[in-house]
Amino acid sequence: MRTRRGVCYPRPQWRAEEPEEEEEEEEEEESRRRKRQRRVPAGGAAADEAARMMAAEGVAGEMPDFFDSLPDDLVVSILCKLSASAARPADLVGVRITCKRLNELGSDPLALAMASVKSLAVRAKNWSESAHEFLKQCADAGNLEACYILGMIRFYCLQNRGTGASLMARAAMGSHAAALYSLAVIQFNGSGGSKDDKDLRAGVALCARAAVLGHVDALRELGHCLQDGYGVRRNVAEGRRFLIQANARELAAVLNSSPVWKRHGDALASGCSLLSDFGCNVPAPEAHPANRFMAEWFAARGASGWPGEDGLRLCSHSGCGRPETRRHEFRRCSVCGVVNYCSRACQALHWKLAHKAECSPMDRWLYAAGAPPEVGAGEMMMMN
Ligand SMILES: [Zn+2]
Ligand SMILES: [Zn+2]
């Protein structure tokens, strides 16, 4: 077989019987010749010297090493396919620890740029300097998902707001929908700054860009902003249209991922209330690796005092994981006052998934009677 570069691969020679001594010697000589070719491309005195050294090291007796004879670009292209289809970070780590060559080629920017979302889904309990370095290398290689995940971790967990926001902005400039939506949430709340840093119009603009890309939370957020006239001129009909679109996309996503549907069989049987508007019960959407990381990160620190003496709280929607960056940043449920949300999208989703059953019965009665309770400053009403 001949590669594009013109390098010939050795023809495999499997031996059914004990080989003749002569054949064995020929193979050994062939093996030595191939190794010399790979390691010392130029001929001359250097090649002879290397050959003498290898002979002294005693390479005789080894089987032909087909892997060593593969050109680098072919190995990198295989690693690209692997990183694009990896189901967990361990898949990539497992390959890279195999040998020095795979470790070096595994850090090729081409392979890192193609790393899949699942291969970047580092768990909070496994967070380390090397995990940080891996995400940084992928982000530097232009992997937008890595830019977003590392941006969220730095902004919220490591409290490195500047570099976190700039990484998210880099992902957003590459039309990464979740990054656009997260930047919108930061603008709506003035996260990382003071109350005066809220920029509702910028939040709506970012949300609209994420909604165009089909981001479900952004569609829901934009729908509620339009219905409430929050950061944009009020338009109830248009807002309703976005909310219906969000529900439809959510349903489509669930129907397309049948394993998830089966895995949540119990939830289906017990009647998860998401999409109940359509008389259709589906499981809660799977959280993005960045959100899952934050939820696990802060849950692990709960024992040591999170939300802590500073009184900062987490978003009550369990699939979100965003923490407050200053006191009273999030809005609370105006009915019971015990849950807090980073966004209207989180509140609407959590209401359908769980809070509808937990909130005060009095207010459910008021809703049924069509008289929703008043909403105070910094509070948010229940939304369908
Ligand atoms: Zn409530
Ligand atoms: Zn949230």
Automatic annotation (TrEMBL):
<keyword id="KW-0862">Zinc</keyword>
<feature type="domain" description="MYND-type">
    <location>
        <begin position="317"/>
        <end position="359"/>
    </location>
</feature>
<dbReference type="Pfam" id="PF23310">
    <property type="entry name" value="TPR_27"/>
</dbReference>
<dbReference type="InterPro" id="IPR002893">
    <property type="entry name" value="Znf_MYND"/>
</dbReference>
<feature type="region of interest" description="Disordered">
    <location>
        <begin position="1"/>
        <end position="48"/>
    </location>
</feature>
<dbReference type="InterPro" id="IPR036047">
    <property type="entry name" value="F-box-like_dom_sf"/>
</dbReference>
<feature type="compositionally biased region" description="Acidic residues">
    <location>
        <begin position="18"/>
        <end position="29"/>
    </location>
</feature>
<protein>
    <recommendedName>
        <fullName>MYND-type domain-containing protein</fullName>
    </recommendedName>
</protein>
<dbReference type="InterPro" id="IPR011990">
    <property type="entry name" value="TPR-like_helical_dom_sf"/>
</dbReference>
<keyword id="KW-0479">Metal-binding</keyword>
<dbReference type="InterPro" id="IPR044508">
    <property type="entry name" value="At5g50450/At1g67340-like"/>
</dbReference>
<dbReference type="GO" id="GO:0008270">
    <property type="term" value="F:zinc ion binding"/>
</dbReference>
<dbReference type="InterPro" id="IPR057136">
    <property type="entry name" value="At2g35280_TPR_dom"/>
</dbReference>
<dbReference type="Pfam" id="PF01753">
    <property type="entry name" value="zf-MYND"/>
</dbReference>
<keyword id="KW-0863">Zinc-finger</keyword>
